[in-house]
Design goal:
- Helix content is 33%, strand content 24%.
- It contains 13 helices and 21 strands.
- Strand 18 and strand 19 (414-418) form a beta hairpin.
- It starts with a strand and ends with a strand.
- Bound molecules: 5'-deoxyadenosine (5AD) and iron/sulfur cluster (SF4).
- 5'-deoxyadenosine (5AD) binds next to strand 15.
Length: 446
């Protein structure tokens, strides 16, 4: 049996894509290996979101090529967003044998087959319809508790800094019945949590094709999808990512309120606290709108966890714009944040229209100020949890010791507690006794 080795970079969506790739390649007779030395096919599923994401992959390509020097029959492929962005540039000088974009994975077996020393293979066509909805991903996680399910592909937003619309194409929503079936199957095989993935889950919208009998012209939006998945079992927890501030609807918040198994956590990327920057970023909301949505979330879901993404040093960002971001972080008090310096991406609207003009040292300083503030705010939120109880899904032993288990509370905060009884996939009630800036120290509740 031939062996495939795959490395995954970037977002959760990419992790799920790698699972789709493994499924397609398994059907074509490939077994998975975790050792690059025994692989016949080496794939990197790549990310283009920031320049350093691509730099890491270039470093890995050098390592892959060493394998090829030792074993010339090995096939090296770059797939995913970097394949889509760089296209045949990746074939210059025969750096790799195969380049496949995010919508070409069904063709991988044929492409691998067709690779020969003078015939590298490339397919970077983007699709308007591909959702891989009939493919059952081969789960790559180790704990068997939590699974990703893609509910849509592509992105129709046009954030000026972002490469994703170019690498993943137009937005398309997957048939909800295949999503529910997939969630039922993972639940039946022991999983207790699914995370529904999309670049902008709030714009999920599926309409039944006209010839669909009694489902004729039925429309399912994200709130409706959440309810369909929530009905599978009260023992199945549902998470989702990513929400878009101008699109999240009250219906989604009500679906969360009415279904205790939909976890109370929203990843809610703000990107900037300054209206001038938000406009230039082509985000479709203002600071005031964002704060109103946060207030609404907290009104309907008082204990909801909130996390965010932010970019420091976008084109033209003034000190006042930066202070606006800091004040928004102080006001909202996120539990956690992914914080980045702006990285100009070739081909984006910003790269064409807006100079990357904030000096690197200023970007770094501003980013550090955001990080420092966020660390303080996050720590306050964690400390506030002391004395509260949470229902936690056990993931496995804690990082530090086997006598402790870890798992996330509904609000996404990581909990650890002494426990030699429960096992991954169990639900346990814990009480918070102490907190570090990113972990709740707990004990089993009485
Ligand atoms: N530079 C820096 N950060 C970016 N992100 C997206 N594009 C860029 C870029 N060009 C960040 C955004 C997004 C997260 C996934 O990555 O914050 O929400
Ligand atoms: Fe995911 Fe965006 Fe990176 Fe593509 S570029 S892998 S969509 S984070």
């Amino acid at each position: 049996m031939k062996k495939i080795y795959i490395e995954t970079y970037g977002c959760q969506m990419n992790v799920n894509d790698s699972e789709v790739i493994l499924s397609i390649m398994e059907k074509a007779g490939y077994g998975r290996t975790e050792s690059i030395e025994e692989a016949d096919l080496i794939l990197a599923n790549t990310c283009s979101i920031r320049e350093n994401a691509e730099q890491r992959v270039w470093g890995r390509i050098d390592v892959f090529r060493l394998q090829k020097r030792k074993r010339p029959g090995v096939v090296i492929g770059i797939v995913g967003c970097m394949a889509e962005r760089l296209k045949d540039k990746l074939l210059d000088g025969r750096i790799v044998d195969l380049v496949a974009g995010p919508d070409s994975y069904r063709r991988l077996p044929a492409m691998v087959e067709a690779v020969s020393p003078d015939a590298p293979q490339i397919d970077v066509l983007l699709s308007r319809t591909e959702t891989y909805d009939d493919i059952v991903p081969v789960r790559m996680d180790r704990n068997g508790v939590s699974a990703y399910i893609s509910i849509m592909r592509g992105c129709n937003n046009c954030c000026s800094y972002c490469v994703v619309p170019y690498t993943r194409g137009v937005e398309r929503s997957r048939d909800p019945y295949t999503i529910v079936r997939e969630a039922e199957e993972v639940f039946a095989s022991g999983y207790r949590e699914v995370t529904l993935l999309g670049q902008n889950v709030d714009s999920y919208r599926w309409t039944a094709p006209a010839d669909c009998g009694d489902r004729n012209a039925e429309t399912v939006d994200f709130a409706a999808l959440l309810k369909m998945v929530a009905r599978i079992s009260p023992e199945l927890r549902i998470r989702f990512s990513t929400s878009y501030p101008s699109d999240i609807s009250d219906d989604v918040l009500f679906a969360m309120r009415d279904n205790p198994n939909i976890c109370r956590h929203i990843h809610f990327p703000v990107q900037s606290g300054s209206d001038a920057m938000l406009e230039k970023m082509r985000r479709k909301y203002t600071r005031a709108w964002y704060l109103e949505r946060v207030a609404r979330i907290r009104e309907i879901l008082p204990d909801c966890g909130l996390t965010t993404d932010v970019i420091a040093g976008f084109s033209g960002e003034t000190e006042q714009d930066h202070l606006d971001t800091l004040s928004l972080f102080e006001q909202v008090r996120f539990d956690a944040a992914f914080m980045f310096q702006y990285s100009e991406r070739p081909g984006t609207l910003a790269s064409r229209k807006y100079p990357d003009d904030v000096p690197p040292e200023v970007k770094t300083r501003r980013l550090n100020e955001i990080i420092e503030l966020q660390n303080r705010m996050g720590a306050l939120n964690y400390r506030e949890q002391i004395g509260r109880t949470h229902r936690v899904l056990v993931e496995g032993p804690s990082k530090k010791t086997d006598s402790e288990l870890c798992g996330r509370a509904g609000n996404y905060m990581m909990c650890v507690w002494p426990d030699r009884v429960h096992k991954p996939g169990d639900y346990v009630d814990v009480t918070v006794v102490d907190a570090t800036p990113a972990t709740l120290i707990c004990r089993l509740s009485d």
